[in-house]
């Protein structure tokens, strides 16, 4: 009993000390940054095992973690959202702990507690348990105690307009200085050992052959064999190190670029066609491949060739300085040809963008093209664009042909020059001459490779310029904003006015309304009245020049629109389904939803019977073109996806336009029973008879408000719109 009482008091004392330390650190933080509220924001502490494991993994990736809200410290998704990174689940299969796959967050089978898996320099893993503060080497027995799924964290680009310097710094942070040091040291040792062959040539022709020392040939052969084996081992080590860096760089850059694209504002995608944008996004992959496969390899070879140069200088300083002029002329000629080629490559990249955008449009609309029997017309347009691209490609390639011919001819010219120089100005022994020539051939090959790689650096500049629109556009949420919690579904709009860029006409002007939680509201009006634009503003796709939008008394400008949309159900006119099962289309990426939730959503959308009649039910596969679904089934599936999370606010942009009267009645009845604020942008006015309020828009203004019956009785614009549809 005394021991238990002692342990209890000890734990209470320890907990109190931790709280005091936490309070002290928080006060220090508030001195540094007075914007942080100590009641809402807390420093990383030992009370959250998940946060501790996450911080260890983040530190490995050089990810900075600021203060984390207390309510977010036990939820991985919330932590990642606050820090601004993405994550995905990975499977721990086979002998996974034997190879470096990056730092991971795993979970113990026994108590589901999170642990950090950190790779060591030898490629194996160490496990850190935040609860016990224990560190263990991962082996077969320990791996069996872990769940089969783990979490991999992806670092994001900083929330600002990115420069070339930012990209280089980001790529540099993807691997450690130890990786670079290991790469250079192995390369240096390989470069030094490579001198064994020219040095051995000098010894053979200067000493062994003239003096007839046959026994020394065998000694030299053994030394050369050892040098070749050692050089091969160093080259192999360098290759492994290079592949390790390449993989790390590939993982981080690919994820960061696509994370940036997904974080861009919706208005950005209006100005760029899908095919063109895909080409721009692929630029980072092309840059990475250039630096990995060509530039880094050649630059390292060029740097390590300095040992050949020093060896040549030790044999004949005069001849070495002379051949240096040949190398400089090589650089100048190569650079001149590259600059001339650059003009055509820039024009070529623009043509590639346009052709990609055109091809995407053609493939997307192939059914319409065939229905109009317009294949020949589109083929003619394609040939025009393709011909321009090929002409520029041939012009750019002609400079590559010049360079290829020049680099093939240069060694012969250099050899003739060296022979002439030695015969006229220099007296070298046969051994020294052969050694000098062998070193020069290797040195010249490395320098030519280096000069050609510098041309590829100019290509990287083209790709960077091409994707500048992606790098320079700011993400939708550039700073930490408030996250709505316990959302009730209220919207208020005050003095809202909006017009598009380069358009003098106001699309919306001085709108004012308030929608209470649970209301069923419709916005109607003639074409061009601003209905869809209003929806884009409410969803944060566009930003109004004047006025404000409030969600539950929170200004939309101060909210994280990314997090807000997760609280909403949305069905847009141009919403598309994903290739996959019906189940995956309904629940999306929500890991906390199951098949029963999907069936409830399908029932609410009037799609349950259709799905049950399909061969594989909820697991029926659909393609991106929805060939297996009718238009009405597609829209009901989109509605099911919108309501599956039981949101407090649902937006419909003419979501029932493709439904027949029977199905429309089922969906309308189900939606009326759904307890949420419902806002519908309606063109088919028979679908809004049950609405609590209807706002009639004309020329960007609200001209009428009321329910269906009162507006018909009033005899204004709404009645005219209804009568037109009845006719």
Give a short summary of the structure.
With 727 residues, the chain is an alpha+beta fold. Helix content is 57%, strand content 13%. It contains 25 helices and 20 strands.
Keywords for this entry:
20 strands, 57% helix, 727 residues, alpha+beta, Cathepsin B, Chain A, 25 helices, 4 domains, Rossmann fold, 4-stranded antiparallel β-sheet, 6-stranded mixed β-sheet, ABC transporter transmembrane region fold
Beta fraction: 5-15%
* CATH superfamily label of the largest domain: ABC transporter type 1, transmembrane domain
Number of strands: 20
User: What's the alpha carbon Rg, rounded to whole Å?
Assistant: 34 Å
Task: Name the poorly predicted regions.
Answer: 24-46
CATH architectural type of the largest domain: Up-down Bundle
Average of the residue pLDDT scores: 79
CATH class of the largest domain: Mainly Alpha
Helix content: 55-70%
Judged by helices, strands and strand pairing, the structural class is alpha+beta
CATH topology of the largest domain: ABC transporter transmembrane region fold
Subcellular location: Cell membrane
Domain ABC transporter: 491-724
Main location: membrane
Pfam families: ABC_membrane (PF00664), ABC_tran (PF00005)
Question: Explain this structure to me?
Answer:
The protein is elongated and about 120 Å long. Helix 9 (274-281) runs antiparallel to helix 12, helix 14 packs antiparallel against helix 15 (430-466) and helix 20 crosses helix 22 (631-643). The chain is built from 25 helices and 20 strands. Residues 24-46 have low confidence and may be disordered. The termini are far apart. The protein is an alpha+beta fold. Helix content is 57%, strand content 13%. It has 4 domains: 44-154, Cathepsin B, Chain A, CATH 3.90.70; 164-174 and 252-472, Up-down Bundle (ABC transporter transmembrane region fold), CATH 1.20.1560; 489-567 and 647-727, 3-Layer(aba) Sandwich (Rossmann fold); 577-646, 3-Layer(aba) Sandwich (Rossmann fold). A hairpin with a 2-residue loop joins strand 12 and strand 13 (554-555). It comes from Halanaerobium saccharolyticum. The chain crosses the membrane at residues 180-205, 217-234, 290-311, 317-340, 399-422, 434-458. Residues 181-459 form the ABC transmembrane type-1 domain. Residues 491-724 form the ABC transporter domain.
């Amino acid at each position: 009993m005394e021991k238990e009482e002692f342990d209890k008091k000890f734990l209470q004392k320890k907990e109190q000390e931790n709280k005091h330390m936490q309070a002290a650190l928080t006060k220090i933080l508030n001195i540094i940054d007075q914007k942080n509220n100590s009641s809402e924001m807390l420093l990383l502490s030992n009370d959250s095992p998940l946060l501790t494991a996450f911080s260890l993994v983040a530190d490995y990736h050089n990810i900075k973690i600021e203060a984390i809200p207390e309510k977010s410290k036990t939820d991985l998704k919330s932590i990642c959202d606050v820090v601004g990174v993405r994550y995905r689940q990975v499977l721990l299969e086979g002998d996974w702990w034997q190879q470096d796959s990056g730092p991971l967050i795993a979970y113990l089978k026994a108590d589901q507690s999170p642990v950090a898996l950190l790779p060591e320099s030898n490629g194996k893993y160490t496990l850190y348990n935040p609860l016990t503060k224990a560190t263990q080497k991962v082996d077969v027995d320990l791996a069996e105690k872990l769940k089969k799924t783990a979490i991999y964290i992806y670092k994001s680009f900083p929330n600002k307009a990115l420069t070339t310097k930012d990209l280089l710094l980001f790529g540099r942070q993807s691997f450690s200085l130890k990786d670079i040091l290991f790469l250079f040291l192995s390369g240096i040792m390989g470069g030094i050992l490579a001198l064994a062959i020219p040095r051995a040539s000098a010894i053979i022709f200067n000493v062994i052959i003239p003096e007839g020392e046959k026994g020394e040939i065998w000694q030299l052969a053994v030394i050369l064999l050892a040098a070749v084996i050692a050089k091969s081992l160093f080259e192999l080590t360098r290759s492994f190190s290079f592949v390790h860096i390449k993989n790390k760089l590939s993982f981080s850059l690919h994820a960061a670029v696509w994370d940036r694209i997904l974080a861009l504002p919706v208005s950005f995608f209006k100005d760029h066609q899908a095919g063109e944008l895909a080409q721009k996004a692929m630029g980072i992959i092309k840059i990475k491949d250039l630096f990995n496969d060509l530039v880094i390899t050649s630059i390292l070879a060029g740097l390590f060739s300095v040992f050949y140069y020093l060896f040549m200088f030790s044999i004949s300083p005069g001849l070495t300085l002379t051949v240096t002029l040949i190398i400089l002329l090589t650089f100048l000629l190569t650079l001149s040809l590259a600059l001339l080629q650059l003009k055509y490559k820039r024009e070529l990249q623009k043509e590639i963008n346009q052709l990609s955008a055109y091809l995407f449009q053609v493939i997307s609309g192939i059914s319409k093209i065939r229905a109009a029997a317009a294949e020949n017309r589109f083929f003619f347009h394609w040939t025009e664009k393709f011909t321009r691209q090929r002409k520029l490609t041939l012009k750019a390639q002609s400079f590559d042909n010049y360079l290829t011919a020049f680099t093939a001819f240069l060694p012969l010219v250099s050899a003739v020059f060296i022979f002439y120089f030695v015969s006229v100005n220099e007296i070298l022994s046969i051994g020294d001459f052969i050694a000098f020539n062998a070193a020069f051939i290797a040195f010249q090959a490395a320098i030519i490779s280096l000069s050609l790689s510098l041309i590829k650096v100019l290509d990287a500049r083209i790709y960077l310029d091409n994707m500048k629109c992606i790098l320079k556009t700011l993400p939708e949420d550039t700073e930490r904003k408030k996250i709505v919690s316990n959302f009730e579904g209220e919207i208020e709009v005050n003095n809202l006015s909006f017009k598009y860029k380069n358009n003098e006409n106001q699309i919306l002007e001085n709108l004012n309304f308030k929608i209470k939680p649970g209301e069923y509201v419709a916005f109607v009006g003639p074409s061009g009245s601003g209905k869809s634009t209003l929806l884009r503003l409410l969803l944060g796709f566009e930003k109004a020049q004047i006025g404000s939008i409030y969600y539950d008394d929170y200004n939309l400008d101060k909210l994280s629109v990314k997090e807000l949309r997760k609280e909403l159900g949305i069905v847009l006119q141009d919403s598309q389904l994903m290739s996959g099962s019906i189940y995956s289309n309904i629940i999306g990426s929500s890991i906390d939803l199951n098949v029963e939730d999907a069936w409830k959503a399908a029932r609410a959308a009037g799609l349950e019977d259709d799905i049950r009649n399909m061969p594989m039910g909820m697991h029926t596969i659909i393609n991106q073109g929805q060939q297996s679904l009718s238009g009405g089934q597609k829209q009901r599936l989109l509605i099911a996806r919108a309501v599956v999370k039981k949101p407090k606010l649902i937006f419909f942009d003419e979501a029932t336009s493709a439904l027949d009267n029977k199905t429309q009645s089922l969906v309308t009845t189900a939606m009326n029973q759904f307890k949420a604020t419902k806002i519908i942008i309606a063109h088919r006015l028979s679908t809004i008879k049950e609405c609590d309020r209807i706002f009639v828009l004309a020329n960007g203004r609200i001209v009428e408000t009321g329910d269906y019956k009162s507006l018909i009785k009033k005899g204004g614009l709404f009645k005219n719109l209804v009568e037109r549809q009845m006719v």
